[in-house]
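Worked Example 4.2. Consider the chain below.
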Amino acid sequence: MPQRVVVTALSSEPRKRFAQELRRLRTQRGFSLRDLQKAVGWDASLFGKMESGGTLGGPEVVQALDQYYGSGSLLLTLWEMAVGDPTQFKEQYRRYMMLESEATSLWQYSVSIVPGLLQTDAYAREVLSLGGYRGKDLDRQVEARTGRRKLLERLDDSPPFRALLSETVLRTPLRDGQAWRRQLEYLVEAGERPDITIQVLPFGAGLSGLVSTDVMFLRLLDGTTVAYTENAHRGELIEENAPVEQLQRAYDAMRDVALSPPESQSFVLRMLEEVPCEPSTSAM
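Applying the procedure from the previous section yields the following structure tokens:
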């Protein structure tokens, strides 16, 4: 009789359980990742990342594996459980941060707030406090977020970064006028650097294919591109080619109708002129 699988030895965490089952089904066939690529059609690197827990993949590839292995809807069921597991979002974000630090270029669309890589300390503090952080937790989160700026401040190998900002970003000030002034000044300074490009997508450009969705694209050392999408409630790391390419097309369409970098600089400067100056203490 064939040896039975001891289910109790498998992880109770949905994401790990999914990865274990993927690995078990492949090794039962005596297949390498390359063999699986030839049999099913997706890239071997994707299967490797799915088996290591680096990504969950998409429903299409999971259904194809179920069909190939003859496992009914086992993998799809496990995949749906993993997608619904709240712990996966933290894991995805940790992996995203690792990939961000290794990226050879970055380009981002921000729909409502200044991108994290361009936030001043005061801006980050107000955004994070609105998210519920307080006290020492808030201090740690601010330090972590603003520490990301070092990625763009490396002297020898800072990656090129393009930030496409909805006009909403520049029309939503901080409560503290002087902190908002400093944030706008920082955007102007950043836009003058040769490795940073800032463009504004004006209201007049109309609707876009990324309504209410922030997205960051990372170009990696192996030439592949991954995307991290984020809204008010969750973030998702996307590594499969087809959805990444779809997001890129939407981004490119918006960039085509955005203000040019010089026009965008002028736009930010006009916003800066509208910030009330701090009252002079000498007049008191």
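DSSP finds twelve helices and six strands in the chain. Residues 90-114+157-276 form a domain with the Endonuclease; Chain A fold (CATH 3.30.870.10). Compare this with Example 4.1 before moving on.
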